[in-house]
DNA sequence: GATTTTTGCACCTAGGTGGAAATT
DNA sequence: TCAATTTCCACCTAGGTGCAAAAA
């Protein structure tokens, strides 16, 4: 596991920024939730192989709850706490904006989920693409979905298969503020938008 | 003509920023060409009515040469000059990035060609969407194309119709530098990205 | 010379960061 | 008091303007 490659049938998916994800995975990745919506960092980038170039596919992401427990960061460690009673709500599906599209299109270059946003606001409505609604202090596992789309005679859509791809190193805990200082230092180190917080920023050549 | 509405069969298209285009049309619109590619301003925004919500359509733009003449700005006026000998080259087609999509999608909101870029560089290759290749000092007329897409049994695509919509007020002359000072003042007045050139910028409340 | 195109630039728009302070 | 969330912010990235000077 955690080798950055996942295979299902004829399809092969590579987690394109695998090594970056591993760095965060080593500190237990945290992702920020807020009302206007926050991007993931790292964001998910895949490379897909083995599609039929002329067939049509819908590519999407599911953010799957890993368990029904509340997690807590204490004494420098994450630990499972009480079980969550209510059914965890949430919009956990995000369809890639290029969907639907041909196999040739999807295989042509990396598939980036750069603009996916996550929120804890139940009333959130992003005009362009719906935001992912999650619960703070819960653990999630992103899962890539690839669905072949067939267009029937009567304008209806029927899918012939759906394949799922999971990369354990992309698991994360949703938070409203970073808990682990080492984790937030990784964010600052690798996210270009956080460059202002790098100690080296003003001293570098 | 120039009322901002165009009808073809069951389809009706409204030029959504009609009044802005009219302001420029009154001064003979100019659009900048350069190597990295330049957006149009105003850019083309349409509202489409009368599609079948569940049918699929491809929406695209053609930048049609109005004539084969070289135009010149002299003594405050544009005039037609010598005829262009060579066949005018160019990539004159720009498929809207949402294509293909359902009638419901297209009719849901205004269709913006905000990110279309124009260039005079024959070797230009924009990774995302191809740039429109035009000739400086030539006159062009944008034309909206709507093509119904039908998916056949054998993964092939066959179109059942294509409708075209032309709005005379969106005609323009391509240039590498603005010729008419009144025209460039309109650009400064209405394009948010040119705000720094507005006289009123620093004196406004 | 004269005209056209290119380059470099200051100045914007638009929006993504984590942190600190305020709020809940 | 404590923990979690929200708000505000300075500081970035990214990239769209017309203009002036340089180049072609």
- Principal-axes shape call of chain A: globular
Q: Helical segment tally of chain A?
A: 3
Order of helices and strands of chain A: EEHEEEEEEEEHEEEEEEH
Oligomer: homodimer
Q: Which structural class do the helices and strands of chain A define?
A: mainly beta
**Largest interface, chains and sizes:** A-B, 6 and 5 residues
Radius of gyration of chain A using CA atoms only: 18 Å
Largest sheet of chain A: 7 strands, mixed
Helix content of chain A: 10-25%
Mean pLDDT of chain A: 90
List how many beta strands of chain A DSSP finds.
16
Which strand-content bin applies to the residues of chain A? 35-45%
Distance between the first and last residues' Cα of chain A: 40 Å
Low-confidence stretches of chain A: none
Condensed summary:
Chain A has about 200 residues and is mainly beta.
Please explain how this structure is put together.
Two copies of one chain form a homodimer. Chain A is mostly beta strands. Chain A has three helices and 16 strands. In chain A, strands 3, 6, 9, 10, 14, 15 and 16 form a seven-stranded mixed β-sheet that branches. In chain A, strands 1-2-5-11 form a four-stranded antiparallel β-sheet, with no helix packed on it. In chain A, strands 4-12-13 form a three-stranded mixed β-sheet, with no helix packed on it. The termini of chain A are far apart. The A-B interface holds A 52, 54-56, 151, 155 and B 54-56, 151, 155. The first copy, chain A, binds a DNA duplex (24 and 24 nucleotides) through residues 32-35, 38-39, 41, 120, 136-137, 175-178, 184, 187-188, 191-197, 201. Chains A, B: It is found in: Nucleus.
